[in-house]
Amino acid sequence: MKAYDIVIIGGGPAGLAAAISAKKAGIESILILERDQELGGILNQCIHNGFGLHIFQEELTGPEYADRYIRQVKALNIEYQLNTMVMEISRDKLVTVMNREEGLFQIQAKAVVLAMGCRERSRGALNIPGFRPAGIFSAGTAQRLVNREGYLPGREVVILGSGDIGLIMARRMTLEGAKVKVVAELMPYSGGLKRNIVQCLDDFGIPLKLSHTVVDIKGKKRLESVTLARVDEKGKPVLGTEEEYSCDTLLLSVGLIPENELSVSMGVEMDSVTSGPRVNESLETSIPGVFACGNVLHVHDLVDFVSEEAALAGKCAALHVLRKEDEGKLAEIFPEEKENIRLVAGEGIRYTVPAVINIGRMEEELKVRFRVGSVYKNAFITVYFDEEEVFRKKKLILAPGEMEEVELTKEKLEEFPRLSQIILRIEEK
Amino acid sequence: MFDYDVIIIGAGVCGTAIARELSRYQVRIGVLEKEEDVCCGTSKANSAIIHAGFDAPEGSLMAKLNVRGNEMMDKLSRDLDFPFKRNGSLVLCLNEEDRPKLETLYERGIANGVKELKILERDEVLKLEENLSDEVSAALHAPTGGIVCPFQMNIAFAENAHANGVEFYFDTEVENIEKLEEGFAIKTKSRTFKAKYVVNAAGVHADRLHNMVSTRTLRITPRKGEYCLLDKAAGKLVSRTIFSLPGRFGKGVLVTPTIHGNLLMGPTATDISDKEGTNTTREGLEEVLKKTAKSVKNIPVKQIITSFAGLRAHEEGREFIIEEAEDARGFIDCAGIQSPGLSSCPAIGEMVAQLLKEKMQLKEKESFIFTRTGMLNPKDLSLEERNRLIRENPAYGTIVCRCEMVTEGEIVDAITRPLGARSLDGVKRRTRAGMGRCQSGFCSPRTMEILAERLDIHKPEVTKMGAGSELILGTNKDTLEDKE
Amino acid sequence: MREINLICINCPLGCPLVVEMEGKEVLKVTGNTCKRGEIYGRKEVTDPTRIVTSTVRVKGSKEKTVPVKTSKDIPKDKIFSCVTALKEVEVEAPIYMGDIILENVADTGINIIATKNVYSG
């Protein structure tokens, strides 16, 4: 049986960054398993620019961003296997995989990094009524057809969902000759970047209808029209506000869901808000030695933060392996284990990653990432150590579409030896 | 002078079950289907359950054929290699006042010949199913109730019929039927078929065909049933099919696991006029959620992956019409096949075949092939067998649909086997590729590619469900024009 | 004097900017919260530019397209001329990231370059 110190499930941006970081932390034996025919994951079809501002201080396209990491993986001689599907992972990290050349086989890992990414929510998840003709695509499927294959899925397009993928596809379809008639958004605000609203919609005169949803779909073979209606505060369509748009294509950009079927089947404890695993400061799941990062952990808006997070997961996976191999070394890295401190998503906060912190294992600084539940203007991000406020920062704007972060330092935490929980809150005053 | 001895119109479960049963005999059979594949109408959108048989009135044809169809299912599913399971069903009584209705159902079931029926008290019911409503006071338990894959059953009938010499014509809509001196001329867009006998198994369209040859008009009303299908993660919420008694809230809806492990809820019942009106409605889907919540607790509605609607061929008399038209001898109706049509279809096949055998004095073939081997499902193989398979055919080593873990090998098989898939939906019904939680988001571009390769067509010609449902409408920049 | 309304793209705040202009001269930018808003407002009304990304067809590879971009931002009103100029372009694999696919696209003085390696075979 093959055996590796670290097996990384997925060769997208998260898997690549995790592998590079694990290698740099001193692990030689690493294997990336990728189901597609190339490394880079979904970035390969994200041909628009805007990636990498945070990490490289320049604007790259998706394939260019991926290439920076792929080159490093190759330069570091990290092994990877393409066209290889992970079928199952057991609790004791026996990874069952399949490909055309070797069939089904198993790989034993000492540590596993979950980096499978996410999938798009489908029409069913919204229970949109109407017919089910050809012409209804998730934005990502359309992106693949247009950007990788050169095919236009349709000529007259309505888009539901104003997340970044929906906005980007509005521009892509327009520039390839399609007419995008309208983008509808269920929420009273767009989940996408302002820049994308301006440069993908306004530049081309595409209207954005906030607080609108699709209430009917017509066409028995190919899509003929969709009907939009305004929704009330509860998201229910308002009678009498229906407007029918003739179109041959409906693109859905209605949210992403971490793809955790493997994690669930191996018994990893899940977080019902993120749909990703619950992790600690090391991005380690409830199964020791199994780490998670990127969109499989929680859906990100910027790939830069995926890379950053994955680098931490890769490093911690490396430490896990080293710790087992060399107990002496361990003493240096992990002076002493303390009890876990719970992170609590207080008012206005939907979730935090990580969910628990072990001070003994945390690095000097730890980024806690979170999302807010609605739009706030001139509000404060606050952090409480039990009852005591330790951090307060004013933000001009906070929106659910933007991942936020606060940094905790080990030094500060150590000032509170009996700390049991850390609470994050949004306070309007 | 006759193209066929018997022409069957409609390749749903009834038409193909009849074709299969009739193909035992020395007789030339053609099946005409207006869609591009088998299983495109009522057969593809229903509850996918095999009723025990306590619903239909005692002595009715429905009761008889349901119970008989149910009995045939074990052997048939083995012979024809389609998935079927007797998971049992429970009719819940949520209100002590309704108990007499439960008892009526029990007695009717006994009279209809349903075996092993039993009324269970609250505690016994909750022992069987822990997620039922707290209000359960009793339930009728029918262990013979089952679940089936209607697509696979339909495809199995068709493939086996085909193997026994039945010829299928797809995209062949019947425009008119003329009664001749002897037999019938059946006009379609491409050609006119002549046959001695016609079997009308056209589902919701059966009235239109019947009325072409008979003055005793039939009227079939499409009765829409809307459903929600949930992720496999929710499939274990109940293990039996859960009905509720028709009661204060009108006709009950069911909650059932599917044979593939999803959870299915529905149907509503609304009479409509459009015979192709398979659209779901907001009201309908809300009704499904509201009603099912009364019988089963904690339904994770967030896990709905798709919703759909099917049309039952409702006939006023609420009885199956399986007989020769009185004023058009040789024209056999198989009409008004609403619920429990799926459960009854094997028995309907038997009955129609018997009827024609007697009329035509048919002789059995010696060479009748009574078994059919379904598509190879690598998941059923041992590790060694699966690896041998991949060595022989590497396509079985590549996963195309990651939600349902369907390999390229299976998709190729679905397309290239006799009566194979010609569209994305055809592949989906045969392999489940695209039927999972992402609803074909990831796999459809690749499946389209395989379809194009194997059917030797260009990718833009690939359809979702036959002509008019093309998935790609152009190439990049094809309409951009240089203004200079 | 005329007023042009814009939405600032620098952060999620999306300040509604009002740019007052006299001829081609910017008199004043209001509605911004920070300096970045003013800079954006001035540029957007006097010299709006965009990076354009697209694809062109590929021969001699199992890949069907290669993604491309303008090597620098081009005037906003040249976006459609730019993509239209790519309509008939077909390139032969192998292509490497950074390869010039089309020079001086739509007379902008800017080149179209490949953003992905596409290998032959």
State the major sheet of chain B.
8 strands, mixed
Q: Specify Rg of chain A, calculated over alpha carbons.
A: 23 Å
The radius of gyration over CA of chain B amounts to 23 Å
Please count the beta strands of chain B (DSSP E, at least 2 residues each). Answer: 23
Instruction: Please report the number of helical segments of chain B.
Output: 12
Number of helices of chain A: 11
Determine the N-to-C terminus distance of chain A. Answer: 60 Å
Overall mean pLDDT of chain B: 96
Major beta sheet summary of chain A: 7 strands, mixed
Q: What is the CATH top level name of the domain at 84-145 and 221-309 in chain B?
A: Alpha Beta
Strand content of chain B: 15-25%
Which residues of chain A form runs of ≥5 with pLDDT under 50?
329-336
| CATH third-tier fold name of the domain at 84-145 and 221-309 in chain B | D-Amino Acid Oxidase, Chain A, domain 2
Structure in a nutshell:
The complex is a heterotrimer of chains A (429), B (484) and C (121). Chain A has 429 residues and is an alpha/beta fold.
Explained architecture:
The complex is a heterotrimer of chains A (429), B (484) and C (121). Chain A is an alpha/beta fold. Chain A contains 11 helices and 28 strands. In chain A, strands 1, 2, 5, 6, 7, 8 and 20 form a 7-stranded mixed beta sheet that branches. A 5-stranded parallel beta sheet of chain A has the order 10-18-12-13-14. The longest helix of chain A is centred in the C-terminal third of the chain and has 23 residues. Chain B is an alpha+beta fold and 484 residues long. Chain B is 30% helix and 22% strand. In chain B, helix 1 runs parallel beside helix 5, helix 1 packs parallel to helix 8 and helix 10 crosses helix 12. In chain C, strand 1 and strand 2 form a beta hairpin. In chain C, the strands form 3 sheets. Chain C has a 5-stranded mixed beta sheet with strand order 8-5-6-10-9, with no helix packed on it. Chain C has a 3-stranded antiparallel beta sheet with strand order 1-2-3, with helices on one face. A two-stranded antiparallel ribbon of chain C has the order 4-7. With 121 residues, chain C is of the alpha+beta class. The mean pLDDT of chain C is 94. The relative contact order of chain C is 0.16. Classes of the chains: A alpha/beta (429), B alpha+beta (484), C alpha+beta (121). Chains in contact: A-B, A-C, B-C. At the A-B interface, helix 4, helix 5, strand 11 and strand 15 of A face helix 7, strand 18, helix 9 and strand 23 of B.
